[in-house]
Amino acid sequence: MGFKKILSLSILAFLTVSCASTTEPESVEEVYVPTFKTLSHKGFTLVVPDDKDWNVANETEYKVELAKRDEASSDVYTIQALLVRLPSFESDEDFKTYVEKSMDDIDQKTGSTLIGQGSNFIPYNDNQCVQINRQTEKSAEEGMVLDMVNFTCRHPLREDAGVYLAYAKRTQQGAEAEDLVPQALNLFYNLEFTDL
Predict the structure, then answer these.
(1) Of the candidates 118, 112, 180, 182, which has an alpha carbon nearest to the alpha carbon of residue 145?
(2) 35/32 Cα distance (integer angstroms)
(3) What pLDDT sits at residue 141?
(4) Alpha carbons 156 and 10: distance in angstroms, whole number
(5) Helix and strand tally (H, E) in the chain?
(6) How crowded is the C-beta side of 58, counted as CA atoms within 13 Å?
(7) Is the distance from CB of 167 to CB of 187 less than 8 angstroms?
């Protein structure tokens, strides 16, 4: 036998043995990778989960509201963003006071009782926005609690306009607490101001 023929048979034998000894790869666990979509409205764009569980509950050119129900617990999550009219403010502190009072006025109109609240400034694109974390209970719906993280920003292109963004969860009183801040901040940092 010639050298080339022996070499060819040796390589063929090696490849056959190599392929035969290869084990099947372990099964890979499927990992859920969320997808997102951009919603454009007058004055802002918002990036939200592109998930069949999130349904558009209300939408106009100035606002959008999405809702999702957790079937296991009956909790309801909402995302709301809208263009709002704002007066002029002499200081950032006046702006923050105005936003807090607006939240209190909404509670009065809806018959909600404030359980807890924290507010602070959060900078965004050379703009001081107000972040409010609130928990309220609705008198008409005994035992229902609304946890909410919301942001109000003055629109950089128009003095009398602002954008309000909220991420909220309605649940039964006594249910396990959930930190909504990470999801709310994710929405907030993907908010962009656009022409009015």
Answers:
(1) 112
(2) 9
(3) 59
(4) 74
(5) 3, 10
(6) 8
(7) yes
